Records
---
Amino acid sequence: MRVIASAPINVIVYYLKTEQGKRELAERAADIHAEISILKNKIVHQIKRWNYWMRSLHPQKKEAREQA
């Protein structure tokens, strides 16, 4: 992994005292996790489509790889 730049991040931690607060936090975390998973899948799909498109533009590179 290559780090280009970094900056300090301020973090505020709240300790939840009620069961309702803990449940709400768990629901929000699950929602965010689901959104990130969906976004990741969309990005992976777009990369695969782009790679397929690039291979179709340069079939000679594929032939060279197959001969090696």
---
Amino acid sequence: MNIVTIQPQPIQGYRLILGYLGMLCMLIGGITLLPLLTLFFYPQDGKEAIYFLLPGMIAILVGFLFYQLIRGKEKGRLARNQDAVIVVSCWLLAIVITAFPFMLSGHYDFTRAVFETTSGWSTTGLSVVDVTHTSHLFLMHRSTILFFGGVGLVVIMLSVLSDTYGMRLYNAEGHSDRLLPNVIKSARIILIIYFCYISAGVVLYVICGMPIFDAIIHSIGALSTGGFSNQADSIAHYHNISIEIITMVLMILGNINFLAHLFLLRGKFRSFFYYCEIRFQFILIAFAIPIIAFLLVNNLQYRFGDSFRLAAFQVISALTTTGFQTMSSFQGLPASFMLIMIILQLIGGGIGSTAGGIKQYRVYVMIKHVMWHLRSLFHSQKMLYTHKIYKVERKEKIESAEILSCSTYIFMYLVIFLLGSLLLSLFGFSLQDAMFEFSSALSTVGLSTGIMNYHAADAILWIGTFGMFVGRLEIYVVIMALLRLRKDGHHYLHTLKKA
């Protein structure tokens, strides 16, 4: 008698998606509980522990139940763009779950709590929290979100799990930096680099006189390019040039592709400094600082030394999309000053880094494309050119498909920027302030003219929330997820009609 063994089918479709989301939900629950470690040092905040215990434990329990759908079972391949559905869904879950402590405290409604956590996960730094009347527990909660938002939820998941198809999730979250052949090891290397830089930042801040709690908050805020501070006047509170220099170094490090960091740490300085984004970044900084310094001297009568110090810090803060500030306010500044800052915010940081914005690589490719095109106009049409740029380690050919992808992304980004700015201006704000504020949200910067605050209209905060979310995950991922959900929804309805 022949016994036929039926092989179990691999888990696929939305059952697989729910299983992945279960894993990520458990991870988010653990992240929500992490700030409770602060109570060992600040036990007076113990009465607020319940605000974190409830959502954290519920998230872990619910995540565990959904994880059972795939636990110990063979996983199939995700269908096209289902990886984007997972990434967008897990970020929405993270935003909502970590918003519950704010809502349970009774000081924030759903809109303001979600705005705050979206700002944290997207590493923006816009805030509706009055840090002068906020406990250490909630301040650490914001910085914990910044920490994990900077490296990305998928990187955290891959660093503790082994998953055959994790590379697609890794790429969908916006990581192009495959540091090692194995994506799991790449994720762990990213975490190690990230943690070591933050630890070094904390030590240097303490040496320069910053209290240890402040040092942790600001080191995370600088390297994650998030910009959350526990001081109402941000870095300006310390009036310490050493602290400002450390912050600028950390912001620049957070702005650099993680793959470039690996070459820097391995001593491959030539590969590091030849990388197109590194050179482009320093050209932008060198170009913008003197102009901003001149505007401060000429329009606001600052002394040259003070203006150069302020200009250096604010240019780096804007370009790296961090949002720390040493200026008292961005209201009433010259239009030329605001325009330069808006441009820097829109360009943003390095691709595959913790920073936001269009990304320096895309802008660099488009500038080179314009130069190549202009050169072709003055040469024979019979001459063929191979267009190359320096990436990390070597010079690589740029295909027309990549140029098209960069130009399409920049076009969509600028359309969203203009629409968001227009919507804010409808609330009575000047177009200049509206453009500055929405570019800050969309590029996940965090510098503000004061439009988005605790007392702002709900609609204004939702416009900012949308900008931060789309800016962090990048437009393509959100569009792919929506198109996949639309397609699957139509298929499901069609199946129901047939039944």
---
Amino acid sequence: MSQFLSTSWWSQVEQTIADAGSLKIPTAIRAICLNITVVTPEGQTLPLAMKNGLFVARHQSDATAHITLPLDVARSIFIENDTAAGFKAFFKGQLKASGDLRCLFALHTAQPTPTQRHLQQTIAAFTD
């Protein structure tokens, strides 16, 4: 098990993606470039992004939107696939968003492919 967003977790994620082969990510999702800042309970900020339908461990200069959210909410959304947690956090003021937010709606309505679902389940299995 690797702690969510730790260096070892990112290494496992990258290897899992490489091993997965073609993920057949829908065009609408591949078009999204979203910067994400995760804030730990200690106040540390962890920059990441979604680009080409995959998470990367740094912000992207071509991102069209940005969200900032607490670590527990990020884990709920990205690992447990609980999109309702994102809406709850937004309405509680825990999730802050800026830029072209249409990409968030695209993410919410997109249906993952079976390959993407398997990848997410594999990542969730090694995430602490």
